[in-house]
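Task 17 of the worksheet. Students: predict the tertiary structure of the chain below and write it out as structure tokens. Keep your answer in the requested format; marks are given for formatting as well as content.
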Amino acid sequence: MRLLNFIDGQWVAPVGEEFQQDYDPATGEVLLEVPRSGREDAVRAIAAAKQAFKTWRLVPAPKRGEILFRVGQLLMDRKVELAREMTREMGKVTLEAQGDVQEGIDMAFYMAGEGRRSFGYTTPSELPDKFAMATRDPIGVAGIITPWNFPMAIPTWKIFPALVAGNTVVFKPASETPHLAYQLVKILEEAGVPKGVVNLVFGSGQEVGETLISHPDVALISFTGSNETGRHVAEVAGGSLKRVSLELGGKNAIIVMDDADLELAVDGIIWSAFGTTGQRCTACSRLIVQAGIYDELKERLKARIGALKLGAGLDSSTDVGPLINRQAMEKVHKYVQIGKDEGAHLEIGGEVATDARLSSGNFYLPTLFTDVSMEMRIAQEEIFGPVLSMIKVKSLEEAVEVNNRVTYGLSSSIFTSNVNAAFRAIRDLLTGIVYINAGTIGAEIHLPFGGTRGTGNGHREAGTAALDFFSEWKAVYVDYSGKLQRAQIDD
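Model answer:
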């Protein structure tokens, strides 16, 4: 199968007629061919989106929302099929892939409703016979740049609020997961999105991404990816005063206190650390444990980790799927060696899977380090793989300090039966998301998603907060006094 770009309502080959192959990370099988687009393709898509914005911005927001309702229904009807394709392309197990699609369904219905709920507000004027109100305006062409680990959820977090707010879109998905992007745009087309309103351009960050962040006709950029690339996006796009939303890395921690329900904590830790093979920005890679239950928790975790089954995600008995590619495997293994060199104790895992049935894929054994200090690189740097580091602490205060002593601030969690400790954690953990007696993953789409410090630049995705990024506030004053009134000027 050969995919095409979608520009101005037409499925078209890249100008250079170049394509590259897309692989199944569990088997190495070639799945399809993807356009290797360049600057010229991106410029054509931007021009189409700019032209479409003139009419799309005038479509009543409830009507824009009706299209998203149809999108949500189509996603629901095809959930199983889309999840299967995601598993083949990205590697996550089927149940997780279905959850990824479900986030897209939830976001479609939520943002569709915002077509009738994108409220402004009125407020009393300080002058007589004068009316004051604030309304939302769309901004223009939105450049959407998404990663491979959530190939349905993350694009919908960005595209759907952009559309319901009245913006048009040029969408550049990750090169590793093009098929889900293609399927999503096909559904948008089928649901009735007018030509030019959504454009899809496959290609590299160096070619397509760079064009989006530097082109003067792109008004805003929504990017999810690495901190290194995010800084570059901010520098280039910020230089032309584009509005930029960055959702970057994480080094998330679960705190387990002596009074925690250990069975529940182990369930939460395993899911958070090894779900999606640790390839989530919200994955738990640090485990901060109060000294009294440190050894018992270690033994429980070793037993559970050792029982996890690796394999292709389409196998219903699989617990942990492959990493996305060979480069990811090499990076994970490099960090395991760093951990050993720093003096951390490798309890289990720490190597590429040697089972013959896994030899064609990118499989790495789920890994647990103990005797980790908070200064070690494995406790500070994002690994983005199935590696968990245990850090011993004496108190809640020390646990909070360890949690906050990283450059990131996305997600954190505490397991405790003490309500006072829970509320202190809510107050003191410096992350954009906090969980009590649950792991670090599982955000819901009607709440704001994002982090503090090095995790991003302060914007939030999901919930009504997403509309704050994709719209501009306009203050309106209507003076019906029939005379000049000067605000703040004494008579």
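Marker's comment: Residues 5-248+456-476 form a domain with the Aldehyde Dehydrogenase; Chain A, domain 1 fold (CATH 3.40.605.10). Residues 120 and 135 are 5 Å apart (CA to CA).
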